[in-house]
Design a protein that fits this description.
The chain is of the alpha/beta class. Helices cover 41% and strands 20% of the residues. It has a five-stranded parallel sheet, sandwiched between helices. The protein has a four-stranded antiparallel sheet with strand order 6-7-8-9, covered by helices on one side. Strand 8 and strand 9 form a beta hairpin. InterPro entries: CheY-like_superfamily, OmpR/PhoB-type_DNA-bd, Sig_transdc_resp-reg_receiver, WalR-like, WH-like_DNA-bd_sf. Pfam families: Response_reg, Trans_reg_C.
Length: 217
């Protein structure tokens, strides 16, 4: 899942990004509304975690722009105000969810994951394919009943492949969904991660390489 965190409190923004990356999400971070609009115009995000009170361009205007563009991106709006009227106003702007500060990180993560599931064709919370069961919320993976431990990027790649439901996913698409914008697109990071993932999933192999196209399960 690709997430953009937009928050002018840099310590909070960086802390949220670090936490979400540990949950196997690809996260970009910006600290004002103008930078948010720039990133949204370049990258495809599943979810934008958007502070409402932003410098340069207000969070309300960023939200309006996402709605105006007809993007499938979901918006989780953050604010220091917990008033019901403010929450209602934020939702009426086009935000998909609203979370007042301070918040529990576990709740933020759950809300981001719930919104991420709504950006694509609805799928069950627990993904199952080829003997693999993947639970994004619990960060658990089982193959034929045996639990498998994966690093965050390996988990992210497997989740993208599972969500594709047998369709071929290109290396570029995996890079887009599982890594942030600081990753060099000319590295072999996708190929190496897939190789490690295959080894950890065991025999017989379930990730198929489609020459010249990508990978599928």
């Amino acid at each position: 899942m690709r997430v953009l965190v937009v928050e002018d409190e840099q310590l909070l923004a960086d802390a949220v990004a670090t936490g979400l990356r540990r949950e196997a999400m690809a996260v970009d971070v910006v600290y004002d509304g103008a930078a948010a609009l720039e990133r949204i115009g370049v990258n495809d995000y599943d979810v934008v975690v958007l502070d409402r009170d932003l410098p340069l361009v207000h969070g309300d205007d960023v939200c309006r722009k996402i709605v105006e563009l007809g993007m499938p991106t979901r918006v989780l709006m953050l604010t220091a105000s917990g008033d019901v009227s403010d929450r209602v106003e934020g939702l009426e702007l086009g935000a998909d969810d609203y979370l007042p500060k301070p918040f529990a990180f576990s709740e933020l993560t759950a809300r981001v994951r719930a919104l991420g599931r709504r950006t694509t064709v609805p799928l069950p919370p627990v993904l199952e394919r080829a003997g693999i069961k993947l639970d994004p919320n619990r960060r658990e993976i089982f193959r034929d009943g045996k639990e498998i431990q994966l690093a965050p990027k390996e988990f992210a790649v497997l989740e993208v492949l599972m969500r594709s439901e047998g369709a071929v996913v290109s290396a570029e698409q995996l890079l887009e969904k599982a890594w942030d914008e600081n990753t060099d697109p000319f590295t072999n990071v996708v190929r190496v991660t897939v190789m490690t993932l295959r080894r950890k999933l065991g025999e017989p192999p379930v990730i198929v390489t489609v020459p010249g196209s990508g990978y599928r399960i």
